User: Fold these one by one.
Assistant:
Number 1:
Amino acid sequence: MSQASTEIIRISGHAGTVPGAGLNREYQVCKLVDTTTCIGCKACEVACLEWNGYTFSQTTFDNSYQTMPETAWNYWNLIKFNEHERDDGSMMLLMRKDQCMHCEDPGCLEACPADAAIVQYANGIVDFQEAHCIGCGYCVTGCPFNIPKFSPEAHKVFKCTLCNDRVSVGLEPACIKACPTGCLHFGTKSEMKDLAEARAEQLRNISGFADAGVYDPAGVGGTHVIYVLHDAKNPELYSGLPKDPHIPYSVWLWKKPLKWLGNLAMIGGIVGLAWHYMRYGPKKEEPIPSDDDERRV
Amino acid sequence: MSTNAVARHSSTSSYGEELIPRYSLAERANHWFGALTYIYLLITGLAFWSPYLFWMVAVVGGGPTARFMHPWFGLFFTASLFWMFKGWRRDMQIDDDDRQWSRDIHSYITNEDEKLPPVGRFNWGQKLFFWGMLYSIILLLLSGIGLWYTEALPWSLRFLRYAAVLVHASVALITIGLFLIHVYMSTVLEEGSFGSMVHGNVTRAWAWTFHRKWYYEGNGTFRPKQ
């Protein structure tokens, strides 16, 4: 799975062509998170910090096993814990590894105004290029998963890279490498989908989770991180995993119809004013008539 | 057309070219402070608006600098407009003559100004520009604060982020329309306007032609010579 830089298929805030345009990789990468076999050990959190060179910093106690309330600019991988009471009164501790979902239609990239601050590779990885980031925070608004986080020190935004640096040399992401239960898998999208569907079927038929299923939301064109859930009909139970994530409507309105209406209006306005000048010409002052004094109020 | 006025009157006064004050030094200084800050906001805002215009950040120090400074210039522009409001709000009240003027605006567009009701210190279009900019800057300021500190808005209040991007862009477009018309009219269309905002004076003939009610009723600071 080598990853040449020419295989960029989408670039944020970009006016020209895209080097990887027209490329259609046979293999798209995917991370599979099986929430049903996660034990909440947080080895993936530590591996993520270590590989990406961040040190562990003071966190906020949230009255749960969770390390902190949400991911941070220097903490890209967080196990979210939710104590869920089922209809029969029994408890479930739902644990979900939260990180960038690497959407096929990324809202962050759609919202970003800075040329090449966000790129999407042909293998599906959506990566921030901090050198080009201007720190506007539009990606924060565009993301339906609350993932990009602003660093007050750097004035730039950071998130999970899906270990693009490891994947590009044929290694699996650090979190996958660290997982002791095998609840994390990494491979091609089709392999991971097959594996996830097989596991969901097992959960439905053998383990008694009638609503078990795979989370690969169509609203963002599918994602390159997919979940197996005990209850795929209620993804919100997993600490707010959105049921139907999509690029926010206001971001779509702003970046599509409003942009073209606005551009047309601005160009039309300039043309209209030029036309007015050529048609009607300047307004000139007129001489004051000599009966002016009598007309004074 | 403008030649009609000459034809209507058999003779003309001798003092038409005399200068009378229109804008004080403070009004002019504030106007140009507001103009420069708006142009900065326009350049950086258009760069953030479209990838085809992103190159414009190069002339104001690059993307991160533009992102850092844009909100501050927004505050400067707001201050300029609020100061204008303080000084001009009485002159900017819309009266019955203005309402008639707005109904007859076609005569203004076709340069048949003599068909219009007499105009005070500012005409209906200028008043519309003033109030349009003032209300716009309030909306831009509110939405702009949301964009300035996007990360400070919690996930549960994300609808404020969604509203902010849409309101900020939409209202900015309205101000661009107002700005284009303002610049066109005051630089090339109405001769003498631009100079009045530079050196502060207009000729009596200019005032008589374009702001007759102001010329006659004035504010006591000038009168035609006897």
Note: The longest strand of chain B covers residues 19-21.
Number 2:
Amino acid sequence: MKKYLIYFIFTISLLAHPHTFIDVYLTINVKDGKTNSINFKWKIDEMTSTMLIMDVDSDGNGKISSKENRFIKNNYFTVFEDYNFYTYIKVDGKVIPFPKTKNFKATIENHRVCYSFDIEGDFNMKKTVIEVGDTDFYVAMMLKQEFLNISGAKAIATGVDNDFYYGYKVEFK
Amino acid sequence: MQYYSQLMQLLVSYQYELNRYISTTIRSLNDENSLSTSLLILGIAFIYGLVHAIGPGHGKALVALYFTSNKSNYKKAFKMGYSIAIIHAISALIFTFSIFFILKTMFRQNFNQLSDIAMQISAVMIISVGLYLIYEAFKSKNEKEKILIKSQKSETAVAFSAGVVPCPGVMTIVLFCIVLGHYTLGILAAIAMSIGMGLTISLAGIFSIALNKKAGGFMEGRTYILEMIGGGLILLLGLFLLMGSL
């Protein structure tokens, strides 16, 4: 019976597979081990971007105007608040509330829709860990070492392997 | 659980690479390389389907539950796996083409809304299948002496209830092809992908039948208990999906 149970849990524990892939690029300028601002740039996979572009590039010129930028922010970006932007910032091992996002800008680069945004706060980088991942398993957040643009500190991106959820984390040294 | 998580991570990274590879290949398609590139795209779509279906999904959960609780053979597992995959792909094709050509704009909003409705229909159907299986199990308990031949009906119902939800993975590829003007390739890619998915779903069924055979010994004469548990779990799965999509 145990076998059945294990198999049952295995199959339905997570009811979706990733259909959207987002590359997460981080830009941080660290000074004396601290920073006030972290820039995120999400690069959405080309196929999902195609669907998005159909909806958001209303004039079809392959560029995002300021009007289209507002539309994307209100209709496609703020919804991620409910999902904590798939990002968990841990200070001393505890997740802090995700700061309000600023300077949202959407662009189209090489057929891919990109979202750039900043968060602000007093971050002591040695105590800070940034984790990305979707607990619902619908979006795959990819954060690789080569996506990091960090000055003034050493950062290492590795995979996170929690029980029903996984993703990537960045630690600073 | 750690190995399971590692396996999922590996599967995601494979899908990530395949997703990138397939989109750049479709975009590189032109008059000069059309045949070789099209074949390459179909090959990748097949592998993508295969890997895509290894990830957790309600189709496999349903097939696994059905076959762990109902005596069957490997041939039937293949048949059901492929029925689900084909219905899954046809549903995705119909959804994508109709949304694209009839509604045209606001694709994503419609996509999400219609996917939710399809999921609700599927959940209600899965609940009905669960109830039906429990009813059948009760019947076979009362008529222990007689050999009950399971009707083909329940298997078709299982395949249809799981398959009716269009596969977003297929929809994405089909839409990508349509947007770039490769209509036929879009349809063929959906077929290639569903052949891959069908294989994986069938293997889940076969695995469950193997488990069932092993367990059959000590459950001899009381298989209705297993059938009831299976029916109950399918019912729960349906309720779970329904709640998730409301």
Note: Chain B touches chain A through 51 residues (CB under 8 Å).
